[in-house]
Design a protein that fits this description.
This protein is α+β, with helices and mostly antiparallel strands and 118 residues long. The chain is built from two helices and seven strands, in the order αβββββαββ.
């Protein structure tokens, strides 16, 4: 290999390492995972998912229905609901900051909180 090829090879490796480090930093989970459970524009519960123990929370709907929210292994999802389409259950575990779990018939939203819980 010539000297210029070695330099190009070193630059490519350096850029690859920087990209790997940047990817790890970007996709690293936050230390706190503040969650809000909101129904009909009212905050029902707020908590830090990273320290909350495994549990199931029954949320009654204003129309007489229900949602059962499951917290397990520091993850949250809707385990059961009596809504007709079951989209909230099919959504699965809350993962991304911009994608909440929503049950439209019961006006229920589970999302990451923008601010810290005091």
């Amino acid at each position: 290999m010539t000297k210029s090829v070695k330099i190009i090879f070193i630059i490519i490796i350096f850029i690859f390492i920087i990209c790997c480090i940047w990817t790890v930093i970007i996709f690293q989970k936050p230390k706190q995972q503040n969650i809000k459970i909101i129904q009909d524009n009212q905050v029902l519960q707020e908590f830090d998912l990273s320290i909350t123990k495994d549990q199931e929370i029954n949320i009654p709907a204003p129309d007489g229905g229900y949602n059962i929210i499951q917290i397990k292994n520091h993850q949250i999802c809707i385990l059961q609901s009596d809504c007709p389409d079951q989209t909230c259950i099919k959504t699965g575990v809350l993962k991304a900051q911009g994608l909440p779990i929503v049950c439209l018939p019961h006006k229920l939203i589970i999302r990451f909180a923008e601010d810290e819980i005091s």
